[in-house]
Design a protein that fits this description.
Elements (H helix, E strand, L loop, with lengths): L6 E5 L7 H9 L12 E6 L11 E3 L2 E12 L2 H19 L5 H15 L4 E12 L4 E4 L4 H15 L4 E2 L7 H10 L8 E10 L7 E5 L6 H8 L3 E9 L3 E6 L4 E6 L1 H8 L6 H26 L13
Helix pairs in contact: 2-3
Length: 309
C-alpha cells in the first residue's frame, strides 16, 4: 500500500468525521457495474480488496478510500466502420444520400448495439483523509483525476472544504533559485538528476534533462538564458524520493529502505496486517513530508484557511 503519486488538498476549515460516519455516507455511492447500455460508471470500493468489505480503512486517524471507475471500450474505428456500412446500405436501398444528422443517429444506434459486448476498463484511484493534518491526499498522476475523486467525495459526504495548498512564493521561482544557488537548498532536501525548464515567453520552449548535475554548467546555461525550472527530482530527508512540479504535484513517489525494513518486521503471512502496517507507515511519513516540503518552498500561505478556534 504505497502511493506512487500524491496530489495534496488542504482543508480550508476544521474538518471532523468519524470512520463510521464516512463509511455510512460512502455506502450510498458504492460501486455497481455498468448496465448493458451504460458507457461508464464509478463508485466506492473497499480499499483492502478481498481482505475487507469496508469502504473505509482507518489507521492512525487517517481514512483510506478507493474510487473505482468502469468504462466500456468501443474502438472509434470499429464504430465508424459499422456506421459507414449502414449508411451505404441505406443509400443503395433507398437511392439517396444519408445526411450528417442521420449518420449521428446511426452512430448512437451502433453504440447501443455494441455496448453489451464491449470490453470494460477498470481503474482504481486511492486517497486518504487526515483530519488531524488537515489534508486529503490522492494517489493520482494528474490534477484532473485528483479533482474528480475530490468532487465525487464531496457529492457523497455533502461537504468537502478543500483546495490545493498555496505557498508564499511561486514553486518555479524556488526551484530556479535552488539550481542557480541564489536560494539556499534546505538541509532536508537533496537534488536528483532530472528537471524540466521552460522559457516563460509566450511561445517559449521546454527543455527536459535527465542524468545531469542539476547545478552544473549545462543547466546554468539555460538558467542564464532566462528559463525557469518547473519540475524537479528530489530526495527528502534521505528517505523519500519523488518528482515535484510547479503545481505541487508529486509523482514517482518512492519510499526508502527504512520504511521497507519496518514493514518487513510485520508477519509476512498476514496480508491484512501488512497492508495496515504499510498504510500507517506511509501516512506517518507523508505527515512529515508535506509540511516540511511546504516550508522548504517558502512557507504555506494559510490566509484562506480558517484556523480552529
Amino acid at each position: 500500500m504505497w502511493f506512487r503519486n500524491a496530489r495534496i488538498f488542504r482543508f480550508t476549515k476544521p474538518f471532523e468525521i468519524t470512520a463510521e460516519a464516512l463509511e455510512e455516507q460512502l455506502q450510498a455511492d458504492a460501486f455497481k457495474p455498468c448496465g448493458p447500455q451504460e458507457t461508464a460508471r464509478q463508485g466506492w470500493v473497499p480499499p483492502m480488496g478481498k481482505h475487507s468489505d469496508m469502504l473505509v480503512h482507518s489507521a492512525g486517524g487517517c481514512y483510506l478510500i478507493a474510487l473505482r471507475k468502469e468504462e466500456k471500450l468501443l474502438p472509434s474505428s470499429v464504430v465508424k466502420e459499422l456506421v459507414d456500412e449502414k449508411a451505404e446500405a441505406i443509400e443503395i436501398e433507398q437511392g439517396r444520400k444519408v445526411a450528417r444528422k442521420e449518420k449521428d443517429e446511426l452512430k448512437e444506434e451502433v453504440t447501443l448495439e455494441m455496448l453489451p459486448r464491449a470490453f470494460s476498463k477498470n481503474r482504481r484511484c486511492y486517497a486518504y483523509l487526515s483530519p488531524a493534518d488537515g489534508v486529503l491526499v490522492v494517489d493520482a498522476g494528474s490534477a484532473k483525476q485528483a479533482e474528480d475523486l475530490a468532487s465525487t467525495l464531496r457529492k457523497s459526504i455533502g461537504s468537502l472544504p478543500v483546495r490545493p495548498p498555496a505557498v508564499e512564493q511561486a514553486p518555479s521561482f524556488t526551484f530556479t533559485g535552488w539550481l542557480s544557488e541564489s536560494i539556499d537548498l534546505p538541509s532536508t532536501i537533496e537534488l536528483g538528476t532530472e528537471c524540466e525548464l521552460k522559457d516563460p515567453s509566450e511561445d517559449g520552449g521546454v527543455v527536459r534533462c535527465k542524468g545531469l548535475d542539476l547545478q552544473g554548467d549545462d543547466i546554468r546555461t539555460h538558467l542564464d538564458a532566462g528559463m525557469l525550472v518547473t519540475k524537479l527530482s528530489l530526495t527528502w530527508d534521505d528517505n523519500v524520493s519523488f518528482v515535484l512540479d510547479e503545481e505541487l504535484g508529486i509523482k514517482r513517489l518512492k519510499f526508502g529502505e527504512t520504511l521497507q525494513e519496518k514493514l518487513d518486521d510485520v508477519d509476512a503471512d498476514d496480508a491484512a496486517a501488512r497492508f495496515d502496517a504499510a498504510f500507517s507507515l506511509m501516512t506517518l511519513e507523508l505527515s512529515r513530508l508535506i509540511p516540511g516540503l511546504l516550508e522548504a518552498l517558502g512557507g504555506e500561505d494559510r490566509s484562506a484557511i480558517v484556523e480552529e478556534a
